[in-house]
Write a sequence for this structure.
């Protein structure tokens, strides 16, 4: 069974204090690994898709990386508007569009 | 380009009733997936429809069902509601569901009393 574990559950950073979020996964065959951002009361917002180990993608202050067992979401010099829950999900080969999600990391960035 | 639209945004139902939720995907997207989100379980996959056919199904009881129309719009139905069905129901659309990004709607907040 596909599994995704995210750590930490919650993270509090000061503005400008860089950090990384971890997503460990177990999947029979990886079709893709997805990162989403979710604000309270809203649907998840797509950030990145990673397909193979060694791949990296960047968007503003966020950078996602992928290995064969885990993915990291690096947040450089975060701002208060980066506060949200960050969700990681995997899509396995042979499961069409089903995404298996982790429970997320709640990030709070303070001034 | 319009995003994924879910209606209604909020619903309050009584135990034993049934409910129908609607999802209009992004224009051109043929795959629609449904997820249930609760504080304890996170996001859990319900089912996926592609070209009016259910292509994948999660581990939910038969009270949860869905369908997709020829214009790719999808509906989800929950019969004989239970208190535990209270959740945020999210719909995601993608072009083909394979190797393409899934875009989520704002969700329907269902409360069962």
């Amino acid at each position: 069974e596909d599994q995704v574990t995210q750590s930490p559950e919650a993270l509090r950073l000061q503005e400008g204090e860089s950090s990384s979020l971890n997503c460990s996964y177990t999947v029979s065959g990886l079709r893709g690994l997805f990162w989403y951002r979710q604000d309270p009361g809203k649907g998840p917002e797509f950030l990145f898709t990673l397909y193979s180990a060694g791949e990296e993608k960047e968007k503003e202050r966020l950078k996602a990386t992928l290995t064969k067992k885990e993915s990291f979401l690096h947040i450089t010099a975060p701002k208060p508007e980066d506060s949200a829950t960050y969700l990681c999900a995997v899509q396995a080969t042979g499961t069409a569009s089903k995404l298996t999600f982790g429970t997320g990391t709640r990030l709070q960035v303070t001034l | 380009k319009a995003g994924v639209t879910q209606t209604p945004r909020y619903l309050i139902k009584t135990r034993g009733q049934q409910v129908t939720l609607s999802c209009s995907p992004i224009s051109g997207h043929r795959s629609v997936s449904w997820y249930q989100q609760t504080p304890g379980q996170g996001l859990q996959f319900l089912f996926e429809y592609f070209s009016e056919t259910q292509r994948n199904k999660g581990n939910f009881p038969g009270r949860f069902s869905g369908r997709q129309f020829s214009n790719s719009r999808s509906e989800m139905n929950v019969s004989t509601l239970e208190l535990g069905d209270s959740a945020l129901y999210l719909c995601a659309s993608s072009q083909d569901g394979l190797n393409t990004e899934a875009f989520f709607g704002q969700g329907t907040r269902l409360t069962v009393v």
About this structure: The radius of gyration of chain A is 13 Å. Chain A has a mean pLDDT of 95.
